[in-house]
Records
---
Amino acid sequence: MPKLCAIPGDGIGQEVIPASVTILQAALPNLEIVEAEAGWGCFEKHGVSVLPETLDQIRACGAGLFGAVSSPSRKVTGYGSAILTMRQELNLYANIRPVQSWPRVSPRPDVNMIIVRENSEGLYVGKEQSDGETAVAQRIITKQASKRIGQKTAELVRQLGRQKVTIVHKANVLPLSDGLFRDAVRQEIERLCPETEIDELLVDVAALKMVAAPETFDVIVTTNLFGDILSDAAAHWGGGLGLAASLNWGNGLAIAEPVHGSAPDIAGQGIANPLAAVLSTALLARFVWNLGDVASRLETAVQQTLATEIYPQLTTTRAIQQAVLDSLA
Ligand code: NAD
Ligand code: IPM
Ligand code: MN
């Protein structure tokens, strides 16, 4: 029986996670759910952004669903971002961010890409120093992590029958670090999926293509920060942040998470779109629980909800939740 650790977190996480859990339970009635705490609110209450019990519960369940975190952009002593802590502590080294065109909300009809973001290193190693005059951030790329993300990409390509992988990097300026990433990823994909077309792009050109010709991308694999930025840009084609889903994935452990943040501008109003969270649970179903049929049911329900004439009038989290439940019924 699948188990899920639900962690609403901050802001609209408190609204979209309960809605998506209700929907997931309708599609998967035997799901066992435990709830846990993490985020800025958790830090204010307990002095840590992720409780050790939360990590234990995610490990015990094998799967988590995290809402969002509000992080201050100034340094707060003792605070570390909850989501970054969970990624590091649980070794969730791949971040899978699919973007597809949906009816009504997508600006164009023909986008269908998956961004595979290296999720463990690069500029996210948290090694930053400043003496007030010079600030230095380390950007670490290892062969081991690059090979690992290449392998995960190859696994996805095979499972989903994808045709082309674009490796995005900046090896013209960073030949040692991004050159290492590019070569290690390419080698693994060539080894594991010899029939797959491999393409590469510098990240600036990739950004232009993301704007001008998003339909030309199939699978993108890239380093941590480039993946962060490109996936928000790509989310535009999928109907915006309210629809953008992701899966932080390691070995036998994963946390699904909408790409959006805590949205302090709308938090508490009951108007957050829960579909990104719903689509994130579909990623858990497909990739972690191997329940492709449940994932497809959830995605079809989202598709039908978006396609209805009345979708533009569904302006509350509750109304969207109900429409998805009606589609599932
Ligand atoms: P955000 O994603 O929270 O919001 C950006 C804009 O999109 C806002 O106008 C918001 O109202 C809108 N939006 C986002 N999700 C929506 C939804 N489901 N339905 C309707 N509208 C939605 O980004 P931000 O404002 O730059 O960041 C706010 C906080 O969230 C910051 O503290 C930031 O660090 C954090 N953040 C967390 C995550 C995460 O937990 N994964 C991701 C991004 C930002
Ligand atoms: C994301 C977010 C996080 C990131 C933040 C909240 C640390 O933007 O999941 O894309 O930068 O990875
Ligand atoms: Mn981001």
---
Amino acid sequence: MLVIRNAAQVVCVAADRSPRKCGADLRNIQVHAQASVILRGERIDWIGPTAALPPLPAYAQILDATGKTVLPGFVDSHTHLVFAGARADEFEQRLNGATYQEIAARGGGINASVQRVRQAAVEELTALARPRLQRLLAFGVTTVEVKSGYGLSLADEIKSLQVIAALNREGPWELVPTFLGAHAVPPEYRDDRAGYLRLLVEEMLPAVAEGQLAEFCDVFCETGVFSLDESRTLLAAAAKLGFKLKLHADELTPLGGAELAAQLQATSADHLLCITERGIDALAAIGTVATLLPGTAFFLGMHYAPARKLIERGVAVALASDCNPGTCPTENLPLVGAMACTQMKMLPAEVVSALTINAAAALGRAERIGSLEPGKQADLTIFDVPDFRHLFYHFGVNHVWRVIKRGRVVHAA
Ligand code: NIG
Ligand code: FE
């Protein structure tokens, strides 16, 4: 038994009956002042005022959280952290005026990382991804979605997914693997797009399904990358094999990816910087989670996704890092939350929901994680701040004091 005693705030973000928070409910995060939490095994057992704590057995381990704030462990529902090498050269080229698309057309961008991943063995990729997960954990992130997508051949995509599986077994984090073989068309298929799509549908997807190597299938649906039709073909095939669906949608151009995500009842549509009015209506109608990635807009110097409009129209908004070597090389998820506040005008309470319960919903896990409620998995982070707003107000630094995964302290600052 682990008891978190006398926190200044315990932020529950309870899910009520709905598995995700929309509209005005997004800011309803149930903050208990001067509260305590009892964890029993891997579950949350009790939450209430410190004054009402039941008598504790002598064997109970006590964490004195006086002056601190307890939140559900953050869920990072969109990362590309299996990669080798860096792309600081492209960062500088963009600062000199080149666009992301121009750099990609010259063979840089995603395909630059593909070259490096193809040369790396499983062990090397694992050793490179591990510290990225350790940094995420140190920022209070206890569950992480991780995509393949820098292999782009059967063997190299399987290799990337094996890295994710190995790191998931290792823990203490919980990883959710996504197959993103449709991240770019690799150079050897430049003149045979149809051939690459066949490879994806006929060989890669069945092999990934057979090996149970991914839970989600994602596509970079974008002008010049995968068209709406190509994305639909691939995602429909994935759904038939039992994959849940995600989509990189309307990131750089308003192609209609959000509408496609809704049509296919995808779990989430991600990025959405260029989402259209019709796209917003479609997501709201189906309940597909809109995962916004303001770190990417920041790093590319682009405009931000219309978070306020999405919230007002009843879309369930989540936030994630997009941690990747090209468009968002950071593991600082609370900083991404600060960007959501200052650049997209989300309230701190809305950001908390977007990083916890709605991010869990974007991974189909809101029943088990993403809020603090008796019976739910004991994934919590204790921050050395007196009030949850300080997480985004005092920005850019790490406020984590302890991270707890499945009832065990797995990180201490
Ligand atoms: O989410 N948009 C596509 N994929 C990544 C970028 C990947 C890269 O440039 O390496 C993203 O922004
Ligand atoms: Fe991404």
---
Amino acid sequence: MAEKLALVGIGKIARDQHIPAISADPDWVLEAAVSRHAGVEGIDHFEDIDALLDNRPDISVVSLAIPPQPRFDYAAKALKAGKHVMLEKPPGQSLAECFALEAMAKEQGVSLFATWHSRYADTVPPLKAFLAERTLKSLKIIWKEDVRRWHPGQEWIWEPGGMGVFDPGINALSILTEILPYPVHLSGATLEFPENRATPIAADLKFADPTGAVMTAEFDWRQEGPQTWDIEIETDQGRARLSLGGERLEFDGAPAIQGANHEYANLYARMAELVKAGESDVDLSPMIHVCDAFSLGRRLMTDAFQF
Ligand code: NAP
């Protein structure tokens, strides 16, 4: 039987991805929306999580598509009410929040899924398999986009906990931590902060790879014109290039996959599996790199940013 689900935060990603993915999946039925300003036609609407929990005890799963700053309180209330919880990326505004939610889910015997949508692109498993059989020589992430185009008016990304350019950058880090056959750690970073903002507009990262491969990431929110979401890889047996944020994969310059986007369909399929199995999936390795960048990063001040 389909699980009854409530979606919290009816903003950009809820409309672009969550609602279509839930509607197309027979394992789910969208029963309620929680939003301060918006509703979804044909289903119950509640202004906050307390009203949802009081009025719809029959709903078993809560999916949180709100920004990271308010997410902990919503997730904690849902978990304490015995709901299974799905978290948009990043799973929290700090690591300790995520550890606390993980412990709560365990105590309540419910499923917690810290989603990383970019990992669920069709290109990621073949890229992981490619790397598993080769020795990495270098890996370069270039994630450069125009913040005005992709985050118009989103003030929360510039507030503490909003992560700035790491909001898209963590998607690349979620792919990195999925495809590598071993863990790496950050060895240095430079972060550029607009003089009027609390979060960075650009970041350069260097990683220490235990095999000696050269590994870097460049994130920038000031790129106008063509947008770049690429990972370029060189190994002892050929090259790979992931582009368009994971939509296209090439091996040695030849297209391997240029696919449709199934990321959110795959995320909801995974959540259905977790609920059925009574398990959680909380991998915080992308968050650890971001937190380490804030810890190790040399801070530079740059021009003020206005939308
Ligand atoms: P958004 O449109 O700015 O916000 C989503 C919704 O969250 C808003 O419409 C708002 O709904 C609610 N909200 C905002 N601030 C809140 C607060 N302080 N308390 C309670 N609710 C609040 O953001 P988004 O782009 O959808 O991103 C949401 C999350 O999804 C982020 O973590 C982001 O990293 C992730 N994500 C975004 C994208 C993307 O392409 N945009 C892609 C993948 C993942 P109401 O005002 O109606 O309550």
---
Amino acid sequence: MEYFGRRVRGIVPYTAGEQPRDRRYVKLNTNENPYPPSPATLQVLRAFDGAALRYYPAPDADDLCAAIAEAEGVGRENVLCGNGSDEVLFLTFAAFFDESRGVCFPDITYSFYEVYAGFFGVPVAMVPLRADFTMDLAAMAKAECAGYYIANPNAPTGVGIPAERIAAFAASVPECIVIADEAYMDFYGQSCARLTSAHPNLLVVKTFSKSYSLAGIRCGYAIGNAALIGALRSMKDCMNSYPVDALCQAVCAAAVRDRAYHDETVARVVAERGRLRDALLALGFTVPESKANFLFAGRAAKSGKEIYTRLKEEGVLVRFWDKPVLRDFCRITVGTPEQNNKLLASLQHILFL
Ligand code: PMP
């Protein structure tokens, strides 16, 4: 007896990072922010009128979109919200690509793009990163495809591309759509969001999970011209009219409006990123310069798996992938100074004792 549709057969789903409940780890494996969300969001949570939950939420999250539009310097019609940026990325695959409209992205990047391409039967052209982990945009521009996914900063390397170069790339491929996945952009400050008005083929995707410390509430958004946003909205309305619940809309709107808190926590993470990278370099690691809230660190004669396993024994969780190139590295989220010190002490122990 066969109960399953063709999509289930042979599909390789995305593997999310561990969220262990067995013991308390210094958790540096899924690029969460080590600081709590804005006090304004906690106030909204406490004051939330539970009785109002009997109503459906605003299907297009109007107040939240207005708050995002103001913060990003775009119009309300240029914003669409979803249940995490993963869902927004899913909608982009549904809206812009199909069996005859393929995509291009680097061989080392956010692995969900390949999963979505597989799910939708979208052909993929993968372009290798250069040896220094930078993206080869010139080679990518030559790919046969209908669009591009450019994680900026890239994951899991942390390498960033200035906004002007992304805009120039979009201008050089006017027949294609360029999706800039800016999940980690607030730790870099080179967003293309404001450039979308001048580039009709450029779509920016961002999230509340990282710089806003709201990974648990699930909200992400797209910014682009009204035609692109309209296409995403029609895909959303084929799937789920209310992907962003009422509590989420209220909490995220409060987070976006508290810029001072956001910018302060981002600055704290960025300062620690520099200190942690210097310390890892001093321990003999190779670490590309990161513009994100994580570092990609590898060390000769120690596999990523060994470092990951030994760190886990010491109560420190980092991310490791058993894939070519990646298996020589671990991806380490930048934590608080105390968490980073614990990581560094554990590495010292693993490497030298
Ligand atoms: N893009 C990139 C590059 C990411 O690393 C992540 C986090 N796994 C996401 C998008 C999705 O983030 P979220 O769904 O939490 O918004």
